[in-house]
Automatic annotation (TrEMBL):
This is Sugar phosphate isomerase/epimerase. Keywords: Isomerase. The keyword Isomerase applies. Residues 32-289 form the Xylose isomerase-like TIM barrel domain. GO terms for molecular function: isomerase activity.
Length: 294
């Protein structure tokens, strides 16, 4: 007796847009724009113009943002890449690699605060990165500083049940997928440590294609960023302005749902806020037209 097989559920790709590409908009206006365009979520960078983690009355502002996200039906990942949130004169300073332990501690404190904000927002993950190696610092020293500085934030993330997703960033100590695995091994493979995979960075630095990077990194991916980029040039570009072949990348990203990935794929155009609303619209159209399943 033959039976009709159950239909395979369609694969989906939950798309978001980063608020670091919408810095000329108030946060509520940015979130409303993304919901109106049809995005599934948002990569929310904690910054002085968008849910400043250092400004007064943070709990009240977090509750307001949580209600707004819920009303608009937007999922969220919390990102911590604001350029001058801790130091108004030094980009991304101080970092987790700073020679001064008190300075490193301020970055660790920002990450633990971000985890608590993510808990209240119902976020999927908290994104972070290592920072650049200070001049004259031995690599072994830099890696040990990174591991030590991340450990308290990882404990907070473990308690919260929200992964801390480290991003390989060109020019940083942790720049490649191999570097991520080095950190993971150094820390003893903690459950709370995950990976932010930036598709453009794969095109820029990795030896394999972006689609192959996704396949290789799948077990550790907790957050995804996407944009166009050229080989060897770290410049986030609107879709179609770089070298990436997107249909195979989008197909393998959609297949991540089979491995249990339920996070967002967030468009990352932090230097294009001057055209943010239009690029948010055209980016979604491009991704859908090139195979991103709804």
């Amino acid at each position: 007796m033959s039976t009709t097989p159950s239909p395979t559920p369609p694969r989906t790709l939950r798309l978001g847009y980063g608020t670091n590409g919408l810095t000329d908009l108030r946060l509520d206006d940015a979130l409303t724009l993304l919901a109106d365009l049809g995005y599934d979520g948002v990569g929310l960078t904690l910054d002085h113009m968008h849910l400043d983690p250092l400004a007064p009355d943070l709990p009240t502002r977090v509750r307001h943002t949580a209600r707004t996200l819920d009303r608009l039906g937007l999922a969220v990942t919390v990102e911590t890449g604001a350029r001058y949130i801790l130091d108004p004169r030094h980009k991304h300073g101080p970092s987790l690699l700073d020679p001064d332990p008190r300075a490193r501690a301020t970055r660790t404190a920002l990450l633990t605060t971000a985890v608590r904000i993510a808990t209240d927002l119902g976020a999927h993950a908290v994104h972070c990165f290592s920072g650049t190696t200070p001049h004259g610092t031995h690599p072994d020293t830099a890696w040990q500083r990174l591991a030590d500085a991340l450990t308290p934030a990882l404990h907070t993330a473990q308690d919260a049940g929200i992964p801390l997703a480290v991003e390989p960033e060109p020019g940083h100590l942790l720049a490649t997928l191999a570097d991520f695995h080095h950190l993971r091994t150094t820390l003893g493979n903690p459950e709370a440590l995950g990976l932010t995979l930036d598709i453009g960075h794969c095109q820029c630095l990795e030896d394999t294609s972006p689609a192959d990077c996704v396949r290789a990194a799948a077990p550790w991916i907790r957050h995804i960023q996407i944009e166009d980029m050229r080989r060897g040039v770290h410049e986030h570009l609107p879709f179609g302005d770089g070298d990436i072949d997107f249909p195979p990348v989008l197909a393998v990203l959609a297949a991540l749902t089979d491995t249990g990935y339920h996070g967002l794929t967030v468009v990352e155009l932090p230097r294009h806020s001057h055209a943010g609303p239009e690029l948010a619209r055209t980016s979604l159209h491009f991704l859908r037209a090139h195979g991103a399943p709804a």
